[in-house]
Amino acid sequence: MSEPIRVVITGGAGQIAYSLIPYIAQGYVFGENQKVVIHLLDIAQAEKTMSGVVMEIEDLAYPLVAGVVATSDLAVAFKDVDFAIFLGAFPRKDGMERKDLLEKNVGIFKAQGTAVANYAKPTCKCLVVGNPANTNCLALMRHTPAIPKENFSCLTRLDHNRAVAAVAAKLNVNVKDVEGTFIWGNHSSTQYPDLHHATANGQAVLPVVGEEWFKTEFIPKIQKRGAAVIAARGLSSAASAAKATADHVRDWFQGTNGKVVSMGVISDGNTYGVPEGLIYSFPVVCEAGKWKIVDGYEVNEFSREKMNATATELDDERKIADEILTK
Fold this sequence. Notes:
Oligomer: single chain
Shape: globular
Distance between the termini: 48 Å
């Protein structure tokens, strides 16, 4: 058995972390023989809650858990970590403009990026979940120049899983039988869930579900699913976000075995005409701890329009973030 992997979870007292921890502790994420040391980071006011989470982890009695650290100190949280999962972010409040939200979060991820640079292992991989995830990831990456850009990604697996589930429900098939469904762009209402390459039990999906359902029902449903969950339960997605986070890290770490999934990654060098310098969701495969954008998918006029729209939004966010960071 190898040395324990150290993984830090920010927002460690929150609901997503609470749902995520068992996936990590039981071996789903890093493998059934891989021990882990779990670091939890949250604000000082949440330390009491985190102490309860630590007790829960101890009481789970998972043999793969080699230790737990709970702290509000960035230096302690990021010390020698192999993997960092950023769940925590400043939430959007009523009346808050996008620039105001970005200003709050860019400051948070600047500080955390500096901590990663100073204390984490130089091979550390970083996944940003807290919204606006794509641009938060970009801000984080900007402040960790010694860590390769390929070691940063943001979560669009929740959108991916939602899309797969919606197709499976429409066709009355199992989710495991749906392939080739993926997300382009931003984790926002401009994201583009694409079915042009999707199959179910080996058969093309789009001719069966029809263009009208795809364009007028499916796309808006996936784009607005997060808001629908909040409207229904009064809280944002937690269990599904945790599962998607676990899926993302598992596939990045253990590989996808050729299966195409969605990850927000640096757009540099892509062959789809997406501007460079963005954290943009692409179809990827993972092997040996590395992701690779899948090339060769045909992009028709409808898809190009959707892909450009979400890229434009991300570019606008990047410009705002750059303005904030150069103040």
